[in-house]
Amino acid sequence: MGKLPVLIVLASAALAACTRPSSESAGSASSTATMTSGVRLSAPEAATVGAPISAACPRTGQWALCSVEKRLEQSGFVVRRLNGEAPSRAGFSVAPTAYMLGRSRLEVFIYPNESALAADVAKIDTVSAAPRGAPNPWPFFAPTFVRSGNLAAVFLTENATQAERLTLALTAGAPQR
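Predicted structure:
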């Protein structure tokens, strides 16, 4: 029973320490906020390898390249946007943006809205990611076709686990508003 008063005193001291703001913790919190707000990330202006990824992505509920890049990074991928424009692809009415994810290639097609994407997907064989009846135009590997909201993506990899990770990352839902 002699330990009970000591435990009560320790618990009271711990509770008081947690509820009382200290000048040291307030100062470190504000310096952390200052340091964080002082970091400037710029949106990729040109498609370059290692282009910085924007922290300010539009919050429209639709996919944008910056939200794709952010989601992929959050999923553990090392995202490198390739120089120049990716070649246009038969069956897709928008130009893709190409990335390297390790040794795998990803082409992302961002449509203005879901209905524009649906019109293209209606004419595409999603197994070959090409117009119905056309041969597989993708080099090396069978493509993994992903569709989410206003985004279509074609992932070329020989790694089934990586293909599944990419599919889960992009089909978890479009960015929230």
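Summary: Residues 19-54 have pLDDT under 50 and may be disordered.
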